[in-house]
Amino acid sequence: MIKLQVINCTKKYGDITALDNCSFTLTSGIYALLGPNGSGKSTLMNILSTVISFDTGDILYNDQSIFNNNDYLHCLGYMPQYSCLYEELTLFEYLNYIGNLKGLNKKYLLEIIPNVCKQVGLLQVMHYHLSTFSGGMKQRAMLAQALLNDPDILILDEPTAGLDPLKRVEIQNLISNLSKEKIIIFATHVVSDVENIAKEFLLLKQGHLIYKASREQLCQQLIGYIVEKEVDDEEYYYLNQKHKISSIHFDQNNKRIARIINNQKDEKNTIMPNLTDVYLYVFEKELNND
Ligand code: ADP
Ligand code: MG
């Protein structure tokens, strides 16, 4: 069983503590790294992929430090938040280039590149220039380069950013299919990207890891707090000041139904919380405290 341990990891940029004494252990499966912009997701991803160093702490892969550890680098796949495609190359040329940088054998590359293109649904366009690719195709090309070395650890920093809902689902399914025997870390601030595919959720708030738990465990905490009811304009205005409104919809009779996260627990008339409620509850408090 593969194991990745982050132990008391801290990273500062001048006065900003981007990651504050973070500790957790991952085994195989998909982990969602959730948090608003600036919460430290990319910092953590960059540290795990050894792109940047950290100030204190340690990271162990199967009980060995990841530093100066070629075994770790060989089993790592990284898809950064910002694309680094060379648009004048074809997809094949690009993957061949990245494969060479990764030190992969030329013969192996000739076999693996079409396989990886097939996996991400780009086999038909393998010899097209990247400049002709749509946003979704570029994201999948970035994912393809991360898969070239058949990594045991796959680090994906906002892999669905900028995609429409259909493309998001495609990427989610693709990642879900890859997850056997791998550690996959999927950073996003979009709950729906990960709520059905992640085994656990790591919630990062201003550099602190505040939760590492399953969806059920997270939702459990808000049982008794979520109410759905019809609200008129006046009541909506009042509720919006006092409570967090998780969502609004109009029913068949055009009545406005609000999903409300109460500040206090109420045993009556409450409904099952979902992960979006948890996200709003956890991170809204941060906004209110500012
Ligand atoms: P996220 O990916 O969750 O949006 P980041 O890890 O990019 O968060 O950023 C965490 C914090 O660290 C933010 O306050 C950000 O401004 C700061 N930060 C990130 N990278 C740098 C850098 N290279 N130099 C200075 N500050 C940085
Ligand atoms: Mg980021």
Instruction: Give the ligands present.
Output: adenosine-5'-diphosphate, magnesium ion
Approximate strand percentage: 25-35%
C-alpha end-to-end distance: 42 Å
Radius of gyration: 21 Å
Could you explain the architecture of this structure?
With 290 residues, this protein is α/β, with parallel strands linked by helices. Helix content is 34%, strand content 28%. The chain has helices at 41-48, 70-74, 91-101, 106-119, 135-147, 165-178, 191-194, 215-220, 233-242, 275-289, and strands spanning 4-13, 16-26, 29-34, 56-61, 64-65, 76-79, 153-157, 183-188, 200-205, 208-213, 226-230, 244-250, 256-261. Strand 12 (244-250) and strand 13 (256-261) form a beta hairpin. The longest helix has 15 residues, at 275-289. 34% of the residues are buried. Bound molecules: adenosine-5'-diphosphate and magnesium ion. Adenosine-5'-diphosphate (ADP) binds at residues 13, 16, 18, 35, 37-43.
